[in-house]
Every structure is written in structure tokens, then in C-alpha cells.
Design goal:
It is a single chain. The chain is α+β, with helices and mostly antiparallel strands and 112 residues long. The protein has helices spanning 56-69, 85-97; strands spanning 5-11, 25-31, 44-46, 76-79, 100-103. The strands form two sheets. It has a three-stranded antiparallel β-sheet with strand order 1-2-3, with helices on one face. α2 links the parallel β4 (76-79) and β5. The model has no long low-confidence stretch (mean pLDDT 85). Residues 3-46 form the Oxidoreductase N-terminal domain. Pfam families: ADH_N_2. This is Oxidoreductase N-terminal domain-containing protein. GO terms for molecular function: 2-alkenal reductase [NAD(P)H] activity.
């Protein structure tokens, strides 16, 4: 089975690149697996701020919905993992845009 690709926030474990060192946080395309090798041109270094890393879920949901997907009013949007942090936001963005939303969840307990 092949791992899913997407965007994410990750911590650098090891790097030979001069711009990245162990412990740095980056944002960019990633394969959803425990460890991932990513090419430097695709990464954005997250500079230390007082903003919690959990806030990046909003940025990822926004970019994925508006910049990559960019559906129009009246279109159908399928949200996998609609109960997750990013999926919940994507579902709300879709409703605000006037789309018809269909979501999936991992288990019946997460359906409301």
C-alpha cells in the first residue's frame, strides 16, 4: 500500500543542507509516514514565534481549500477525515463558499 501525499509540518531530524539543522520545523509537501525525505526547494522553514504549531492546521486547511482546490459555489466537496483538525476547517470553508459537503470519518463514534 502506498502512503498518502499531502502538506504538513515536520521537525528536521537530520540535514546536510546549510539552511536546515536538527530540531528546525518546516512546512511543505510530505508523504504521511513516520519518516520522510523531502527536497529543499519545496520547504518553508518555520521561524520560531509565539504562534503555536497547532495553528498551522488552519493555514494548511486554508491553502488546500482556497489555493489548491478552489471550488465554486454549488460544487460538491468531499472531505476525508472530516472529524480531524484540518478536515473540520475544510468542511466549514466549503459551506461558507456555498458548496455541498460530503465528509468521511474513521469510525461511527466520530459521526454526529
Amino acid at each position: 500500500m502506498q502512503a498518502l501525499s499531502g502538506h504538513g509540518v515536520a521537525r528536521v531530524l537530520d540535514s546536510k543542507h546549510p539552511n536546515y539543522k536538527e530540531g528546525d520545523f518546516v512546512c511543505g509537501p510530505a508523504v504521511w509516514e513516520e519518516y520522510n525525505l523531502v527536497e529543499e526547494p519545496n520547504l518553508t522553514k518555520i521561524h520560531h514565534t509565539d504562534v503555536q504549531l497547532s495553528y498551522y492546521t488552519g493555514i494548511l486547511a486554508y491553502a488546500g481549500f482556497y489555493e489548491i482546490c478552489s471550488p465554486k459555489k454549488g460544487e460538491y466537496v468531499f472531505v476525508s477525515s472530516a472529524f480531524g483538525a484540518i478536515g473540520q476547517l475544510v468542511g466549514q470553508f466549503a459551506k461558507l463558499t456555498g458548496c455541498y459537503v460530503v465528509g468521511s470519518a474513521e469510525s461511527q463514534e466520530k459521526v454526529f
